[in-house]
Design brief:
alpha+beta; SH3 type barrels; OB fold (Dihydrolipoamide Acetyltransferase, E2P); 2 domains; five-stranded antiparallel β-sheet; three-stranded antiparallel β-sheet; 8 strands; elongated; Chromo_domain; Chromo/chromo_shadow_dom; Chromo-like_dom_sf
Amino acid sequence: MTPNEAKGTIIQSELDHNRELMTKVDNEFEVGQTVVYRLKQKQKQSGKESAKWGTLVYEVVGIDGYRIQIRSKNGHTLYKSPNDLKFVKLGITNAGEDGIFEAEAILKHKKIPNGKYQYLVKWRGYDKPSWEPQANLR
């Protein structure tokens, strides 16, 4: 095999690999699935370099080659790479019609590593108390 033939085989194998990646998008995501996307990292971020994921849940509404079209409940549409998306399962909540629980008592509190507090709350109508962040108690 000549050097040019070897280069040709390498190029052909790379093209085949890229074609497989294009079809891989269709196999991983389906229209109607719920996902969150990876947030951009700041340039001079110190500490842990793990991925930070958004908190808004989006629904896959279209698949276009290497990009996936996602839309939030308020109609905001984005195009993201499949590598920047992660599946999420939506949980069913037992919240009332207005989505608000009534606290009967705050039993304890604790400081968590990020400097914020969590509270052990006894909910009216429920037997088991739960630890809640301060944001849930407003």
